[in-house]
Task: structure prediction
Amino acid sequence: MSAAATEAVNLSGRVSMVTGATGGMGRVIATELARLGSTVVIVSRKVTDGEQLRRQIAAEVGADRVEVLAGDLASQADLRRVAEEFTARHQKLHVLVNNAGAHFRKRLVNADGIEMHVAVDHLAGFGLTNALLDQLRAGAPSRVVNVVSDSMNDARPVTTRGKPRPVTLDTGELDDLHRVNGTAGFVPFEAYARAKLLATMSGYLLASRLHESGVTVNAVHPGITATGIVDDIVPPLMKPFLGLIKRSLLTPAQGAAATLHLATAPELAGVTGRYFVRDTEHRTPEISYDRALQHRVWDASHACMVTGAPRNHNSRAVS
Result:
């Protein structure tokens, strides 16, 4: 956000939540929301990391406005506990930034039998948002911002030449998310892009369901940013040039700016169900707008949240 835009926003008395807050972009997002006056609840896997960030933000903005909730959002049990702890503290939520994300170099599943890209890059945001819907409605006008990736429009790790290749989605797997990103033909970057596509599709449906509630739901690709995910995605042959590559990318602060804009900009009040690449609205793959498929993604995701337990799958849970 520009300095002028920042000065026009006052979040005093409002409550925000940021997941993935201890990562590069998350730190910036949490800090700037606190600087604007919001009470910011950060979700961190480790209490110590969260508390360290809380102290850093307090020193930087001159006020202790950050609260820490610890939990691994890849775990359905932890996700539910984080939501319960938030609702015990706050009746309203005004800004929810689902920033947590990860890329995994090999296929892993969580304790519930869900492939980890699906668990972290889709179900974490889906589950937390749905668990906090009452607080979001009570805080209306409120905003949900899902940080996704334009890899769903082009699932090639290196995109210097050729036509974009949108990520594929096997619609026969959508009734059971335990089957998505299966062992056969598993490609890590495509699995990451597919999970971001699921997050975007469910966000579109939620936006339509909440249209009259005062709660907006939008998705943003912050640009290719020099974060830890880039370290994982860069092909082995290009590893020697990683430092040079990252210097050519957006900084975490530049990447965070697009998310903050969606979360706070007055001119975006009431805008919902959209996808932005940085500050510009774009389209996602055509399959993402299929309302019947959105409902199937939603129902399968909700089933994971309700049961947590794996159904028929061949994966092995990781510790």
